């Protein structure tokens, strides 16, 4: 997987693929809540795919992997092309942040308390008027000083300042690169590199603090690693999936799944696969950092997680709206006159609302079959606390 992700169906992808293949889809398969695209990837020999997700950084990963002609450049070519602009912006930022970078070195060489103090005192857009002013100027700048978002928002927390500087410099180089056919690949690798080194438990709702000796050792070790080196490796990890002709017919959308199925704009569709969120955790809260990095749009920032306020929210993660959201999903897909395959665990939010998926689906589909599997869900320490939760994973195959 390119980026570790809550609720991934990687462990289930073969079951989903087999269930969809049995339907012999007479057209493309829509992966409506595609996340990291593990189901879309599994379909490379079964059908062309349309992916959709509300988070735009996931779409960059999907475009890089599921669309586009065979790449003509190697990762070494890309690195050679980007390096001069990367070095130039890195040097500029190292001058701007010379004092802070020195303090960071001292904190990393010091005790656990030194590092805690450094993190607690660090200035960022979420706690400093001066940084907010700098961010506003950077947002409006068309020059190289535009490239400071990671440093201004996420340094001395999710990343070391040195890593944030590297991330900003790499983004400056990617944005200046004229090979637009490689852009999604480069941005996907840039996000993937960040996810390898991010000081957070898989998701990015909050960063980790050196609250124990082992956490301190881990942060010191991670913070001294190079984002640029990781980016170089990630260019190879973000490889294209399937054949060029499979990728030619695939499409990638970003938006609310319910809007996509109600708009009536999808063409050549054979089956819809839906893997909606099943807890009250809004993904936009857990993955806001990648979203802000990808969009590079200098939003507001607040709280311990330095989170943007204009986050996407979905009714699938609200107890008061989950039932209506399932009705919307089933109603709109049944109007498309194609089968709907839904992944949903037994302990999902819908069950908390006292309803089951088949109870809703049968109101719109003539035949609803259930297949159940035992699975360990990775919660990554989200709202349930435990990092692994055993659950029954269900596939509901709904036929018109
Ligand atoms: C359970 S995860 C899907 C995981 C995916 N199948 C995989 O294997 O990586 C749910 C996904 O739905 C997205 N999402 C949540 N609500 C959405 C909505 N209303 N429309 C589109 N995407 C949504 C989240 O961003 C998340 O990526």
Automatic annotation (TrEMBL):
<dbReference type="GO" id="GO:0032259">
    <property type="term" value="P:methylation"/>
</dbReference>
<keyword id="KW-0949">S-adenosyl-L-methionine</keyword>
<dbReference type="GO" id="GO:0009307">
    <property type="term" value="P:DNA restriction-modification system"/>
</dbReference>
<keyword id="KW-0489">Methyltransferase</keyword>
<protein>
    <submittedName>
        <fullName>Site-specific DNA-methyltransferase</fullName>
    </submittedName>
</protein>
<dbReference type="Pfam" id="PF02086">
    <property type="entry name" value="MethyltransfD12"/>
</dbReference>
<dbReference type="InterPro" id="IPR012327">
    <property type="entry name" value="MeTrfase_D12"/>
</dbReference>
<keyword id="KW-0808">Transferase</keyword>
<dbReference type="InterPro" id="IPR029063">
    <property type="entry name" value="SAM-dependent_MTases_sf"/>
</dbReference>
<dbReference type="GO" id="GO:0009007">
    <property type="term" value="F:site-specific DNA-methyltransferase (adenine-specific) activity"/>
</dbReference>
């Amino acid at each position: 997987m390119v980026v570790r992700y809550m609720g991934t169906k990687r462990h289930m992808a073969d079951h989903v693929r087999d269930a969809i293949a049995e339907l012999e889809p007479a057209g493309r398969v829509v992966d409506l809540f595609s996340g990291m695209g593990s189901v879309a990837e599994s379909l490379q020999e079964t059908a062309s795919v349309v992916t959709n997700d509300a988070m735009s950084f996931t779409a960059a990963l999907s475009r890089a992997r599921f669309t586009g002609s065979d790449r003509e450049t190697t990762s070494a070519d890309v690195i050679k092309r980007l390096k001069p602009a990367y070095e130039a912006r890195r040097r500029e930022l190292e001058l701007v942040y010379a004092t802070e970078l020195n303090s960071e070195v001292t904190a990393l060489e010091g005790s656990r308390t030194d590092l805690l103090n450094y993190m607690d005192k660090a200035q960022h857009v979420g706690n400093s008027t001066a940084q907010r002013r700098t961010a506003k100027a950077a947002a409006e700048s068309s020059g190289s000083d535009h490239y400071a978002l990671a440093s201004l928002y996420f340094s001395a927390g999710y990343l070391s300042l040195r890593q944030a500087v590297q991330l900003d410099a790499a983004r400056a180089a990617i944005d200046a690169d004229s090979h637009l056919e490689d852009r999604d690949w480069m941005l996907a690798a840039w996000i993937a590199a960040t996810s390898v080194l991010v000081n957070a438990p898989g998701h990015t709702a909050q960063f980790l603090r050196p609250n124990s000796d082992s956490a301190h050792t881990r942060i010191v070790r991670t913070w001294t690693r190079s984002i640029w080196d990781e980016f170089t490796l990630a260019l190879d990890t973000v490889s294209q999936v399937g054949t060029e002709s499979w990728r030619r017919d695939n499409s990638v959308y970003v938006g609310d799944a319910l809007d996509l199925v109600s708009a009536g704009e999808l063409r050549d569709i054979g089956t819809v696969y839906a893997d909606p969120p099943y807890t009250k955790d809004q993904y936009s809260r857990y993955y806001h950092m990648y979203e802000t990095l990808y969009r590079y749009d200098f939003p507001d920032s607040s709280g311990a997680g330095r989170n943007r306020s204009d986050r996407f929210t979905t009714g699938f993660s609200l107890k008061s709206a989950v039932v209506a959201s399932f009705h919307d999903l089933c109603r709109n897909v049944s109007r498309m006159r194609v089968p709907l395959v839904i992944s949903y665990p037994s302990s999902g939010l819908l069950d908390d609302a006292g309803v089951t998926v088949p109870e809703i689906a049968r109101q719109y589909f003539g035949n609803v079959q259930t297949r159940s599997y035992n699975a360990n869900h990775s919660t990554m320490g989200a709202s349930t606390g435990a990092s692994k939760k055993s659950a029954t994973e269900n596939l509901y195959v709904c036929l018109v």
